[in-house]
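Before a colleague's protein record goes any further, I have to sign it off. Would you go through it and say whether the fold makes sense for this chain? Take the sequence as given and treat only the tokens as open to question. The record follows directly below this note.
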Amino acid sequence: MKKLIFGMFLFGFIATGNSQILLEETKIEYQPVSLALDQESHQLSIELPEKLSGEFQQNPLAFMKTRFNVQKFLKDNEETDYDAFEVFFKSKKGYLKASFNKTGDLISSNQKFKNIPLPQDVRLEVFRLHRNAMIEGTKYTAFSKGWDITKEIYRIKIKDGDKTRRVRINRNNDQLSLAGF
């Protein structure tokens, strides 16, 4: 009986060793699908993953400049007839809408985000006006001509004791102005 079990074990070991087939190495290259422009609306929508959301909301125009290759996009869509096109970058906290001309120059953009951390100067202005207030929510809207932001608006919901107020602060050329309560 020992010889039979040992013989089956030896046969299985030898059979497994001889059944191995060596294959040559195969190389696979991944070519992502190019970003295609919608033929009718001349728009492109890009949904950003959550891991890029923080980087995107800190400076959306810089994010677009580094992550979106306009010239490659134009080359991939050269058969499409358009005078201008729009690109939407969307995340869970907001979006950036950028308008480009047919040569790839940025014409204008607008961006809107919610519940973002306020810049230091805006936060200080809110606490200067309302010393014991707690910030409950924020909304940020910005407009640009070309790559330069021309107008920024912060809408801030604050709670001061039992009262809830909404403050709007405009930032133009690094100067803050209180727009309303």
Remarks:
- The chain has a mean pLDDT of 81.
